[in-house]
């Protein structure tokens, strides 16, 4: 997973939008799947990959900070966004049934 910044233009004003994206392999080759849209991200760009790794580890029920610095802000964001993704996936499953 990784986070990318996309600039959106609304009524002539430009707004940044952050997307959590995962790379997946398909029959037609590698593709990027949008996992979550993050409207505001108050985190330096050099910490984005750490956050993406922490979110992925939380989703896979792994200890994401056993090998890295224990950054409380990143831990809190990772918990928040992983819970949001889980809720989103559960809603999608319940709509299918």
Explained architecture:
This protein is an alpha+beta fold and 97 residues long. It has helices at 48-59, 72-96, and strands spanning 2-10, 13-26, 29-38. The chain is 38% helix and 34% strand. α1 (48-59) packs across α2. The two termini are 28 Å apart.
Q: What topology does this entry show?
A:
Layout: E1 2-10, E2 13-26, E3 29-38, H1 48-59, H2 72-96
Antiparallel strand pairs: 1-2, 2-3
Helix pairs in contact: 1-2
Short description:
With 97 residues, the protein is an alpha+beta fold. The relative contact order is 0.15. It has one domain.
Q: Look at the helices and sheets and give the structural class.
A: alpha+beta
Main sheet: strand order: 1-2-3
Put simply, the count of helices is: 2
Number of strands: 3
Quick one: biggest sheet? Answer: 3 strands, antiparallel
Considering the chains and any ligands shown, give keywords for the structure.
97 residues, alpha+beta, 3-stranded antiparallel sheet, 2 helices, 38% helix, globular
């Amino acid at each position: 997973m990784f986070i990318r910044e996309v600039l959106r233009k609304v009524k002539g004003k430009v707004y940044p939008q952050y997307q959590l994206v995962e790379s997946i392999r398909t029959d037609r080759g590698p593709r990027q799947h949008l996992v979550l849209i993050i409207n505001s991200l108050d985190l330096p760009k050099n910490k984005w990959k750490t956050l993406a790794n922490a979110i992925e580890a939380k989703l896979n029920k792994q200890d994401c900070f056993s090998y890295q610095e224990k950054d409380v802000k990143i831990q809190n964001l990772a918990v928040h966004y992983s819970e949001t993704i889980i809720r989103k996936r559960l809603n999608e499953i319940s709509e299918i049934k």
